[in-house]
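Hi C.,

You asked whether I'd gotten around to modeling the 225-residue construct. I have! Everything is below, sequence then structure, no commentary in between.
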Amino acid sequence: MGHLKQRTLITATERLRDQVAHALRAALISGELHPGEVYSAPQLAEDFGISATPVREAMLDLAREGLVEPVRNKGFRVTEVNERDLDQYTEIRTLIEVPTTGRVTRTASREDLEALRPVAEEIVRAARDHDLIGYLEADRQFHLTLLALSGNERLVETVGDLRKRSRLYGLTALDRRGELIPSAEEHLEILDLMLAGDAEGAERCMARHLGHVRSLWAKGGDKDA
C-alpha cells in the first residue's frame, strides 16, 4: 500500500507540473510573461496559489523547450527571439521540410497521408476558435508527423527543436487580426496535393507556407501593426 500511495503522489505531482507548464505557455502566448524579463518560481507560485516546487519543475520543462533560460539565484528569463533568429530558423526548416514533403508524397501510403487530415482540420478549427494552445499543438503534430513518414527520427528532432524556439512569436497579434486562419488552411492544401501525388506542387505549397509563416511572424512582432 505504501508503494501505491507513493506512486499516486508522484502522479499527482506530475499532473500539477504539466498543468502549470500549460498555464505558463498560455501566459507566454498572451504576453502576460514578457520576453527578456526574469520571473522567480516563488513569485509565480504565489500567483498560482501553490508551492514553488511544481512551478520550478514546469519552468525547467520550458527551459528544455528553449522558451525560458535559468538565471542563477534569480529565476528564469523569458527567451527573446530576434529577426535574425527567425530568418535562420525559417531557412533551416525550408531546407528540410520542402524536399522531405516531396519525398514523403512519393513514398507514403494513402492511409498514412489520410491520417493527417483530422490534424489539419484541427489546426483550422483552433485558429477559428482562437485556441492558441490547441493551434500550436495541432500544427506541431501535423508537421512532425509528416516528417516522421520519411523514417528519419533525427530530422524530426531537429525541426521539433526549431519550432520550440520560435512558435510563440507574434501569435496573439496574428490571432487578433484573423491572419492565423489562412495559414491554418494551407495545411489542408498541402495534404490534398500530397494525396493527389503532386510532389512538386506539395513542395511549392510547403515553401509558400513556411514563407507565409515567416511573414506573419514579422507582422506579429510589429507592435504598431
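If it helps when you're writing up: The chain has eleven helices and three strands.

Thanks,
B.
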